[in-house]
Amino acid sequence: MRAAPPIGTYRSCEGDFFFVTFFTLPITRSIVRDSLLIADRLRARAREDSRENRAYVIVATAPSASMATLKLGLAPKTIKYLMFAFNLLFVITGIVLLSIGVVIHGVYHEYQHFLDNSFFSVPSLLVALGSIIFIIAFFGCCGAIRESYCMVVTFCTLLAAILLLEVIGGTMGYVMRARVATVTQSKMVETMSKYNDSQEIQFVWDNLQRDFKCCGTVNATDWINQPNLSGIPMSCCDDTIGAVNATQCTLTSPSLHDVGCMDAFARFAEKHASKIAGVGLGLGVIQLLGIFLSSYLARSIRTCYQTM
């Protein structure tokens, strides 16, 4: 019984191939040195057994990123660098999503008295996705540079998950856009009666009516119909500081805002929802491109492993 080689696995058989060693670790100098020693032993054995017409072969396989680099063709290498460039663009999309989420969350928070908590889920989701994209881009860049099959597949999977979450967020935003008018109307009617009781509500209403050039929920008469109010707030009229006898805002005031705040705020929300949908569509196209590039690169790396 002959001793087994110090590295790999030993297999003997009759025929053209007598000795095979498999290396599953990245090739190092010590492995190469030991392989050469094994080859010398095989050559000596070959001379001794030449009468039996046997041959000896060493096969070394190392599915590592370093050897895959040598095997990638021109097209996969091009995809590799395109994917690296895509990840830079992907980081920019993350910044865009993060910025949009923060801005919308700030706007919604300013008018939180006119919305329910479900409206904050979409901007919160955008902020979360924008933050997660930075982590995903790390896998994409490292996977492309190191030509790591596992990291590229992880990047592709996470990218597909992000795209799915964006579709869910877009659907939620579209559904909530249809509810803006209904929710806003009920919240506005509820808070109008508290105008004189809460400085916070008074501040929010005054800012809303000045910023959107609106008055009341449907129109200015909503304020007159409130039993605990003395009249129409001054925020329903344009700035009259310094004007003669400009002490109150009435239905006959020439600067009275004739648009109800429910319609004005609903149009504002729908306008921004349309912009978000457009941005989301553009980001979705970019991410689909990233999924295609990463899938192609992963398949190329895997092919290199199988043919080595």
Automatic annotation (TrEMBL):
Gene3D superfamilies: Tetraspanin. InterPro entries: Tetraspanin/Peripherin (IPR018499), Tetraspanin_CS (IPR018503), Tetraspanin_EC2_sf (IPR008952). Pfam families: Tetraspanin (PF00335). The keyword Protein biosynthesis does not apply. One of its GO terms (cellular component) is plasma membrane. The chain crosses the membrane at residues 81-108, 120-145, 152-176, 276-298. SUPFAM superfamilies: Tetraspanin. The keyword Transmembrane applies. Belongs to the tetraspanin (TM4SF) family. This is CD63 antigen.
